[in-house]
Each structure stands twice: as structure tokens, then as C-alpha cells.
Amino acid sequence: MVSPPRNTQYRVVVVASTMCTDTDFVNITVQPKAKIGNFVWRDDNANGIQDTNETGLGVASIILYNTSNVEVAQTTTNAQGFYEFEVCAGMYYVEFGAVTGYSRTIANTSDDTKDSDANVTNGRTQNYTLNPGDNNPTVDAGYIPNGKIGDFVWEDRNGNGQQDVGEPGIANVTVQLLDQNNNVIRTTTTSSTGAYEFDNLPPGTYYVRVTPPTGYSVTTSNSGNDNTDNDINSGTNTTGAITLGAGQTNLTIDAGLLRSASLGDFVFEDRNGNGVQDAGEPGISELP
Known about the structure:
Layout: E1 8-15, E2 21-28, E3 34-42, E4 61-66, E5 71-76, E6 82-87, E7 90-96, E8 102-104, E9 128-130, E10 135-136, E11 141-145, E12 147-155, E13 174-178, E14 184-189, E15 195-201, E16 204-211, E17 216-218, E18 242-244, E19 249-250, E20 255-259
Parallel strand pairs: 3-10, 3-11, 12-19, 12-20
Antiparallel strand pairs: 1-2, 3-6, 4-5, 4-7, 7-9, 8-11, 12-15, 13-14, 13-16, 16-18, 17-20
């Protein structure tokens, strides 16, 4: 086997079993490799386009596959967000891996030199045909910084819908995160101090639902300062729509719960009229 670095002609001599020879010439054409790659960036406004001042993401994992789904090569972006593969001619696709704290942005929105080419769900691009010597520097991927929703579930002892001094958090309360279609997508419980949080959330519309423990109900909602009031509707145990932007943190979603009270004891026949339950004085049933 030979591996010529450039176009070369070889003289081939074949010797038969009769010791007779034949000579021929073989021309070897060395095809240049092709290149594919470009840029992974932080899409701060979630529009799927590389805008001015949006920075590259370093150490993003990228794999190149042929169309038989065989891995050909893998790499990571450099500190500026760039990457490149150098390969033989053929048909390929690129798969952009998950990046902690980010979600993939929308794909194929406009100018192919500036948009994201990675499928939002699996990170795969379309297939690309590379001829010898081709260079395709348009295969990009945008990632949106994720956000957070959360805060606090507390016992509203005076029923005013506000977190007052001395009112404690309630531990082990079930809190659910719902998507814009009211599907439950995450569930957690409050900590020992009443805190909860849902992190790594892509931009979107969400709702929070709280399940009051036995003996509790939801207090007055939206009664004042949003940092300290109750945001849960007492009829549905759910908030209104919460719109979360790219990288946004909303830690003002609180739930105030009232401990249920009870009143009652005993109705009896006061036979001696002294106003005290004496021994032998019976209870009276079926009073309205």
C-alpha cells in the first residue's frame, strides 16, 4: 500500500508464472480533504440568530457522523465558540451536544450563515454533501441560557397574604411546575425552611401549583408587594401565567397557607342550673 502526498504516476510491472512481464502506468490523483464547521453561541434574546455582542460558547461537545450514523470524529469548541472538522469527501451531519445550563435555540430561521442549524430536541443538523476541497463554515448552533422559578411556602398566621416577621416556612409541601398547556413537567417538595426552586428552565410560559397539606388552605392572593405576597389562587391552588425570558430568574413565586381552625365541644343538660358540667349531666343530641 502506498500513500502519496501529491498526484503521482506509478510504473507497475507484473511478472507472470511463466516469468513473462507486462508493464503499465497508474496515475494516482490525491483528493484534498473538505472542511465543515463554524460557531456555537449564546443566543441571549432567543431569536435563533447570531446578533451583535452575543458571545461564543467554549467547550461545547460536537460529533460528526456519516449518513450511515457512524461516528467519524468529535471535538469541542474553542474558547471563542468555534470548531472545525477536516474530512474526506462524503455526506455528513453534525450533532451538537447538551450544554449544562442552556437549551438549544430555534433552528433555521433565516440567513444560513447566522442562524442555528441544530434540531432543538436532539441537536442534529441536516445532511451536508462535501466534495474534495469544499469548505462549509455555516454549520452553527445557538444555545439559550436557562432560567429559574421558585421561592417560598409559608404559614400565613394572620391571614393577610403577606410574609410577616415570625411567620415560618412549611416543609415538605408538594409544588408542581406546569407548562403553557397545563401539563405537569416537574415536581418538587419544599425544604425544611419552606423554600423550593425549579432551575434549568428554557424561555416559555409556566404555572406553579401547590398542594396544601392536610389542615391548610391557600390565603389571600396578590395582596401587595410581589416579593412577599401569596401568588397562588385559592380556587385552583395555581398561579397565573409566568413568562420566563432567556436566562431570567423569578424567585418571587410564593405561597401562603392558612392553618384551618375549629370551634366546638359539648352541649349538655345542666340539671342543677349551675353552668358547670357536673358528673351525671348528659349530653344533648340532635340540636339544630
